[in-house]
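Q: What does the assembly look like in three dimensions?
Context provided by user:
Components: two
Sequences:
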Amino acid sequence: EVQLVETGGGLVQPGRSLKLSCVASGFTFNNYWMSWTRQAPGKGLEWVASITNSGGSTYYPDSVKGRFTISRDNAQNTLYLQMNSLRSEDTATYYCTRGTSDFWGPGTMVTVSS
Amino acid sequence: DIQMTQSPSLLSASVGDRVTINCKASQNINKYLNWYQQKLGEAPKLLIYNTNNLQTGIPSRFSGSGSGTDYTLTISSLQPEDFGTYFCFQHNSWPLTFGSGTKLEIK
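A: Here is the predicted structure of the complete assembly.
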């Protein structure tokens, strides 16, 4: 059974950093691209970052480019999202997704507030 | 960036109704279009991938169609458990983008 479990969310002040993790199981992790997608409270979905299966290439929308970094450890079946210079508009539930988003984790909530 | 215009934003229908939800892309997305259902407090669940492929375990009353810029999700006979919010998602080109969602209410 495919499982994705995100951790690392919480309350953080504007301008600070936070690192999210996603542990994958039930599939061959290094065969898949992986992504992060977020959802602000009561709002729609926004793609945040993607990484190739080797980790050699990464992709971001302009809203997070230069502030967020996606990475992975294929030996540990773990995906990461390093978030720097956080803003109030980054407040959202962050989901880890597999491939073209066929499976989603339950999400981890990030709140950016002073 | 490709804009995904989803309609309607709110839909109220009765059990047994045929329901359609539409997504229009601002440019050709070559059928790289997924549909998701999301219930309150849960992660989205994939229903249809690449326009018309039913995800494993999803009931056959769900179907997808379309090409170019216009795509449709159809529920052939609405069931009570089909309430929730539906999103389309294009993965043809960067940045990947979602529709704004359709909230489906059961009358």
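Follow-up: Chain B has no helices and eleven strands.
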